[in-house]
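Good morning C.,

I know you're traveling, so I'll keep this short. The sequence:
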Amino acid sequence: MAAAAAAWCYRGNPEAEQPAVLVQFSNGKLRRSDSMRFTVYRSKDTAHPRKKHRRILVSETERLSYVGNNFSSGVMKCNSLCRYFVGVLDKDSGQMEVYNAEIFNMQPLLSDNLIPDDTKDYQNKSYREKMDLCIEAFGTSKQKRALNSRRMNAVGNDILNTAVTKAATNIINAKGVTALTQDVAQDDVQNISIFLPPCNEDADKPEDVYKFEEILSPAEYEALQVPAAVFVNITPEEITKKMEDKSHCSFVLEELKFLPADEKRRDHKARCLWFLDTLIKFSQLKVIKKKHPMGPECPHIISRKLMKNFTSLTYNNGSVQNLISASMKAKIIAYVIALALHINNFQTDLTVLQNDMKLQESRMMDIARAMRLKVSKAKGLLGLENDQNHKLGTLSLPLPVQKSSGSQRKRKKMN
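The tokens, ready to paste straight into the viewer:
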């Protein structure tokens, strides 16, 4: 705030003597006080005990008009907290006359009608554009730098998008849509292999190709004893009821009919079936919102395994969520196939698993072949969908060599 710039004393009837006026300007310091002229207005309601003291002070310059008063909400509080005086010294007599004084805070008077504005274009602007205009006019240096940087980035993105579009058009014109589609299909098959269980190509036995310990660790296998007990002691009547309720997948219900009589082997198969059923149910979820998505009966170590190994983190609506993406679902499918191979002596019905996981046949076959299985046709089990021809996946040694697909060879000819 500028210091007092001028003093003015109202002279009149001694009985109606008014206090001297001290002014300061809210937007700067007055350089030449002698160039300013002030006009004071007072209330006509002299009978009212409060209104009779109201004053308005007005001043004009070549550029702006200023106004101040002693009664509005913006009046300076110092007038009510203390008293001010102005002393006038008579140099001849050496005596000083003292007058009451009052401070007025002068503020620029900005008229809305000085320049007619066409607000039509402004109203049509977006919120972001309006904010940018405000930053250009009143923003800090840091805000203006950020605005310029954002605009430069926008220009850079436009240039990049144009270049990418032009490059994509050139590639399409050069190779053709068909060849590019085949490239994508081949890349998709290659990408699947990233999410397969660890494969030991030098194994001497089928059970060592996809080791059981890579699917379930000893601690995880031990934790399955309690929830799998319901399968160990299941009766034929309970299996029939579960088939009617469809509380478990078809693969598991069919295998429960053929549990071994040996106690140790029966317990092992029950644990594998319970975990396979849990994997298939987990694959049907999309966004994991619960801490224990498979229910309280699922052991904590198994829930942690599902969340850690078969979900990806995503950021949405200000929070981090676990998502079962397409790649994570491919990983679940591969682990389900590997576990089914261990359950069924390394030959399993892929079509039953495909129906349980609600997949297209081509997707299931791509993953099975990527796992180096031999796929053959077999008549499906009675009672399944339309008694359809089923595909069997067999893991045998030596593992078949991965070859380029026919579409890949055809693409090379086109080139």
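Safe travels,
E.
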